[in-house]
Fold each of these.
Amino acid sequence: MNSATYRFLTLIAVLSLALVGLLHAQTAVTGGIEGNVTDASGAAISGATVEVTNVGDAVTEKTVTNRDGAYRFPSLIPGTYSVTVKKEGFAQFIREGTRIDAGIGVRIDAKLPVGTASTKVEVSGEAPLLQTDSAEVNEEIHSTEINALPTFGNNITRLSLLAPGVSMPSGQLDLHPENAGEDFDVNINGASPGANGHLLDGVENTEAIQGLSIIVVPNDAVQEVKLATSDYDAEYGKVAGGLWQITTKSGTNAFHGSAFENYRTSGFNAADQFSQHVSGIPGDVWNQFGGSVGGPVIKDKIFFFGDYQRMRNNLFGSGNETVPIDAFRTGDFSSVAATDPIYDPATGNPDGTGRTQFDGCPGTPELNVICPTRLSQATQNLLALLPQPNGPGTQQNYQISRAATFDQDQFDTRGDYFVTSKTVVFGKFTYFKANFNTPTAYGVAGGGNPLTTGSANAGLSADHDKSVMVDYQHTFSPSLLTDARFAF
């Protein structure tokens, strides 16, 4: 055995020992099924074979009931499952359409009447009315619901308001480099947005300062969203608000794909007659497009899933600003002497009292006129950076419309490998890139307020995020599981 292999196996062993333990239910990235098998009189049936099959990828896991008739599947990839219970001398028990969610345990008890193997007791899967193994209060949204519900910008965080106790604060950090993924800020049960937490496939995905998602996964890549609003497990103790747990899709035995495009333009909008009567209607264009594809590499064994999303947002911000007229640029403010007097700082007392109004150059007195010889070179350089007015008057005499750009590119890839019925390895890689160019009223050199509505700052900025995750799970017994997870 070479040194690299030895180090790798040692790492897995250490992580396994650190994370192995007795299971109450399930892990942060998987769900679970447990229950009891009894006969018609209620007596426990030991040695019954229990099988669960993932409908999507046809992967089957098996176990047998213990002497108390209990069984447990502690680690199942989220999806839809069928459950089959068999025991010689008894009829088969079959339950179809059982939905398994990450972090949720489902209880399925089976009662087997006396009969032959050809006799079947079939039950349709229904969600349990009450989760008896956890006091957690949560809202679960699945892929079918995500695809059916309208989400602005193909952004799943907009669905947060469906959960009880969730409200929207007055301000949103939109079109901002600090929220490049355009997460949706919410208050949960009165807690501030910064108290919320986010997990993506069981890995930390919380921005440290604002409490936002670092990476917002496109709708097409989401298997389910679970928003826990209270009474979550102690392992999430640092969260005081709500906890998002997002699970991405995996491939199945059938090839599936999707494609979409959203396009919006301001060509149908009317011009604002106060700020756009000179520059005209801003030519805003918002274009978002992408798709996904998933399927088998080796049927029943290895699966892949990938998605891509691109957004091009061209915003033409408008402003009604004030720039100095020609007379002001030379120090002549005589036209506003009565309404806007300007006092000479070289006169009066140090505390500002007793100062007199500027009165022009020596020999040519004129009230409210600064002698051009007193204008410093720095002042003249700054004035040269400001544009000429394009409107009348001395206030709000400069109407401007400039293009701003906000571009996003993102892709996700995931692979699942069912090594054996007891060993599962899956990993994913996400890349996200965003570029911002928010113009100012007076250009790059002149500065001024940002023209784009909702932007807190102006200029050029970029955001590049990469996320890698590998998860290794092995079930030793129905009550013993190791889950080693590496993320960067």
Amino acid sequence: MNVAFAEREGYHEALIGETDSLALMKQQVADILKICIERGTRRLLVDMTKFRGTLSTLDRYELGTLTASFAPHVERGAILAKADQIDVEKFGVKVARNRGLNVDIFTDRDKALAWLLEPA
């Protein structure tokens, strides 16, 4: 597992390890889900800024579907990404939201944390 996971005040943080492989990133997301279930994570910040690959529309759909599997376990999730990783339509976020996950994506860590930690 190439994921760093830390408990912070009011949330947990996961750092996707450096890779350009979508398959490896998906495995890391699955590993993060297992950790969240074990630790009872309710709010989660996922930092994917070390991902170096490119994402097609299909990739975004698949990641959104995979991310949605957090919904029964995680109350709110924020994703931190580089600007070039975020689709202008936030398609992957829409896919996850349509499947029940309260999630959003940000390029600014402070904005991500402000959103993540605001009262439900």
Amino acid sequence: MRRIVRLITLAVLLISGLYAFIYLYRWEWNRAQFCVAVFIAGEVALVGMTIIERLNAMVERQEEQSPTAALDAIRASAPPMRRHFAWADKQASQLNVFVPILLGLGLVLSALAALVEKLARATAKPHLERRLAGRVDGMAPPASLITDNPWDGGRAPTHEHTPAPPRSVRKVIIRAVEGVAVILVLGLSVQALGDAAQTRPDEVRDDERTVLVIDVRSGRARTSMTDAAATIWGVCEPLTDSRLATDELLELGPNRVMAIVEPALGHYATNKLTGCLNDLTLDEIRAQVVDRFDVATGEDPTRSLALAEDLR
């Protein structure tokens, strides 16, 4: 189950990180922020799971490493148990005539004290013995230094050094080639992402116009499509240097308007404008660019084949 959860978390991290770059490239900022938030949440969950697993492993190792030899020695050399309330035991050779016994309150208090002592002894003694055994076991000398005859002329025991097996030259070369390949792939990937996300100035084409066909959806029934589209267009239009060639957006049909801008939009300006229109939701109004094409300055955009196919 843990592996399944970890795999799901890694998949969420990979997908959210990939789409964050995709939405940044498309200039869809709200969706990119959502993907980044999901990525951070998955990263925090993965770190939390890793920390919890490490702590559980440490606890299990500590429980498994029980110093039995030192623990047995401590228990064998322990002093005999003291009988703090020996007078309370019933013995035939003693009359046990004491004031606490004669008084009922004293008897109750003595019994409670004996119960508390036995409970403390049963719960605290094993823990203290195990704790002391752990400390003593760490102070024990290595087994290789212990000999049968410690008085052998003052000479220290000899140790035969076993040389480590030589590493294969082929394995070393393979590891080095793999490391270089990983570094090259990462470097090229970072460069490609940076180049894709970089904004450059577009070529100015004054003799052409760009036509955008926009599908508009509004949650307000009384709002016209032209006014709804103008609301979102007024937010996204300043992202480019091009402006509307007409006084307002042209209504083509139900939920569809057309925007004619000049000069024609370049690659980066198109990404900015379409990304803003597709990503923005304002006053329950959403827009989606369904078609984009360039026409000459004096040409009627409604005669374009792409627009005619879209209107069918």
